[in-house]
Design goal:
Blueprint lengths: L13 H10 L7 H12 L16 H11 L2 H5 L2 E3 L4 E3 L1 H20 L3 H7 L6 E3 L10 H18 L16 H4 L8 E4 L3 E3 L4 H7 L3 E4 L1 H7 L9 H7 L3
Antiparallel strand pairs: 1-2, 3-5, 4-6
Helix pairs in contact: 2-3
């Protein structure tokens, strides 16, 4: 059965849990204290808010308790449990710092916090950011993101090297001559992460980006806190 994308998974809890533990060093946090913090971060809905017959509490709270039942944080090496409270490890703190810059970058692009939280996990710690959004992110993320941009340009270019905007159809050389060929930016349709950096990972990642001319790229990000979808953009310009 396919996973319901509207439901919170156990893996979705990890990053916000680490952020909360970082903010609560050295005292740590109990499971009871984590539940409202993670509820606020992930905004569960639907079936996650239904009451579980096993505990008399909702399914979301049950999933947070399962972090301990399944020793999720301990197995990842990102936190320890002293019998009452979780404490972040050096590895967990390094990881939280590593992805924090990427999460802030995604927020600047307009992606909502929930979609970001569900995309960046320890199992998928190879994150990518858009060009121009590399402030305060790890150098490895910047290098990886440039690789994705280069791969995307090759993927979307025609045999003659021309590449058209997915919004308005603009192609640089028609206006600026040969020097305008390749005048394009790569837009991320959603936060992108992968479990590795192989060509196969790039092939999967490139499906989540589209080439846009500078004007269209500014337009989809024009409203703070939102990302306009390509279909809406095309409707606005009559394409």
């Amino acid at each position: 059965m396919a996973k319901d994308p509207s439901r919170v998974s156990e893996g979705d809890l990890v990053i916000p849990a680490l952020e909360a533990l970082t903010e609560n060093k050295p005292n740590g946090l109990s499971t009871a204290e984590l539940i409202p913090i993670l509820r606020d971060a992930l905004k569960p809905s639907g079936r996650d808010l239904e009451i579980s017959p096993l505990r008399g509490d909702d399914y979301f709270s049950e999933k947070v308790r399962n972090l301990k039942s399944h020793n999720k944080l301990e197995k990842l090496g990102v936190a320890t449990y002293d019998g009452e409270r979780y404490h972040i490890t050096d590895k967990g703190e390094r990881y939280a710092q590593k992805v924090q810059g990427a999460r802030e970058s995604y927020a600047r692009q307009g992606f909502n916090k929930t979609s970001v939280t569900r995309s960046v996990t320890p199992e998928k710690d190879c994150v990518f950011v858009e060009e121009g959004q590399s402030q305060e992110v790890a150098k490895s993320i910047v290098i990886r993101s440039k690789k994705l941009r280069e791969y995307a340009i090759k993927h979307y270019s025609k045999a003659d090297g021309k590449i058209e905007c997915s919004g308005c159809g603009f192609e640089g050389s028609t206006v600026y001559g040969e020097g305008g060929k390749g005048l394009i930016e790569i837009h991320h349709l959603k936060p992108i992460s992968s479990s590795g950096e192989t060509k196969e990972d790039l092939r999967k990642a490139v499906k989540k980006v589209k080439p846009l001319c500078p004007n269209c790229h500014r337009m989809v990000h024009r409203k703070a806190g939102e990302v306009m979808d390509i279909a809406t953009l095309k409707a606005l310009i009559g394409n």
